[in-house]
Amino acid sequence: MDIYRTNFRPTDYIRSTENQHVSLEFAGKIKKIPGDELKSMALYLQAAYAIASNTYSLDYLGRPEDMQHQLICHAIHEMRHIEIIGIILCKTGHNPQLKTTGFELSKSYKELFTMIFQSEQAGIESLSEMVDITNDKEIKLILLNQIREEQDHLDMVKQMSQILEKAGLMDTLLPLPQGAGPVAYDINMLQDAFELEIPSIVTLIYGSIHLGMDMSVAPRLRVLSIEDMQHLNRIAQDIITLGGRPVVTHESLNKGPMLVDTAQIINHAIENKQQKIKQYNQFSQMLKSKGAARTLLDISVKERESIRVLEGISNSLAKIEPVH
């Protein structure tokens, strides 16, 4: 299974609901969801990079699946959930806020997986409440589908916890983020690179939400956000190889201005990528690990290609505004 695949989104085809009556109760509840989903994405990434790859196998639809691989899949699913809820918000006349609060770093496997479990449970409860109070059949169907996916996540998290409990890992502390010895220099630098990818991903998701019904440009931003997730994972694997553990910080999740104009969002995405190219070129000359240096240079090449795509999108938006 390709964990970086993009999926059909039913919100791409739902009609605009700007002129429909949306209760204040519904609006109040749904505004909180994107931030909660962003937190879930971060928790899944924290867990993925605390679990050794090709070490723990779980049952996924009747076939064995690597646990780290599946945790990254779940993080990508949360990206899709953010976009789905964000588009509903735009279609009902609200501006989605991709900010998260109350995000704390876990110290043990038990604490981390308990946080993931609680996050998924709270998400299901919130979505279920919104299903009960909306009369829009299309939105209700989308929310029910997202509840089903979150329930699947919850079932998988239970299975993962049981596997780690059996392996004697649940009551142990998470690996140290900085590693030990002389490699700490490279690990700290790679962690800085890792943190540059997070706001880039969030900005691209935000742009895709604001492009709404645009069926040519929005999917391109979606693909670019997935490519940034690939970059994040490549840097993370280099950190793990050196003996460290990548950490998604609260600051990286909430970095950057909240923009409401789509053209400004695209320009901010370009600025993010330009910053990454500059930093990665500097880091590649300073890193002692030649493999990690090559990773950053390879990513820089891809970022130059992405900037050209974003500049083309920016030029298009200068002529035609997106429609929700």
Helix-strand makeup class: mainly alpha
Please tell me the CATH architecture of the largest domain by its name: Up-down Bundle
CATH homologous superfamily of the largest domain, by name?
Answer: Ferritin, core subunit, four-helix bundle
The proportion of residues in beta strands is under 5%
The CATH topology name of the largest domain reads Ferritin
SSE string? HHEEHHHHHHHH
Main sheet properties: 2 strands, antiparallel
Task: Explain what the structure shows.
The chain is an all-alpha fold. The chain has two domains: 1-174, Ferritin, core subunit, four-helix bundle (Ferritin), CATH 1.20.1260.10; 176-324, Ferritin, core subunit, four-helix bundle (Ferritin, Up-down Bundle), CATH 1.20.1260. Helix content is 65%, strand content 2%. The protein contains ten helices and two strands. It has helices spanning 24-30, 33-48, 67-91, 109-133, 137-166, 184-211, 218-241, 250-253, 262-286, 290-317; strands spanning 57-60, 63-66. It has a two-stranded antiparallel sheet. A hairpin with a 2-residue loop joins strand 1 (57-60) and strand 2. Helix 4 (109-133) runs antiparallel to helix 5, helix 6 runs antiparallel to helix 7 (218-241) and helix 6 runs antiparallel to helix 9 (262-286). It starts with 23 loop residues before the first helix and ends in a 7-residue tail after the last helix. The model is unreliable at 1-20 (pLDDT under 50).
